[in-house]
UniProtKB/TrEMBL annotation:
UniProt-recorded name of the protein: NIF system FeS cluster assembly NifU N-terminal domain-containing protein
Annotated organism of origin: Spiribacter aquaticus
Length: 125
């Protein structure tokens, strides 16, 4: 279902006040027009909370907030299927803001790299 372009939920925006227990990832650069920090909290089975800290256009901030709300309750495996293209379409991003969706995806994937594996195993060798 496409996101309402007027939707805004600041509960999912900004860094968490207490960062212990959160996985963090970032992507982009402020001097290039967009930087995104992703914060995920949960366990191997579920993402309990998600937050994005965005330095960029308002449309990108809205898309990140929408994705954070959407991620809550899903498994890490489902989160790994999210792509920038899907996010841009689902969040109704205008063409000029679609590269920001890739930055959001990259930040989320970065946060997921430290996530506990669903089967209890680690990625580390």
């Amino acid at each position: 279902m496409p996101a309402d372009r007027g939707w805004w939920d600041c509960r999912h925006l900004g860094a968490p006040a207490e960062r212990r227990g959160w996985q963090h990832g970032s992507a982009g650069r402020i001097d290039e027009g967009c930087r995104v920090d992703c914060w995920l909290c949960g366990d191997a089975a579920r993402i309990r909370a998600a937050r994005f800290e965005v330095f960029g256009e308002v449309e990108i901030i809205r898309a990140a907030g929408w994705l954070a709300a959407w991620l809550e309750g899903w498994t890490p495996a489902v989160a790994r299927t999210v792509t920038g293209r899907w996010l841009a379409e689902a969040a109704g991003l205008p063409d000029e803001a679609r590269t920001g969706a890739l930055c959001i995806e990259d930040a989320m994937r970065s946060a997921l790299t430290g996530w506990p594996q669903e089967n209890g195993a680690s990625d580390e060798h």
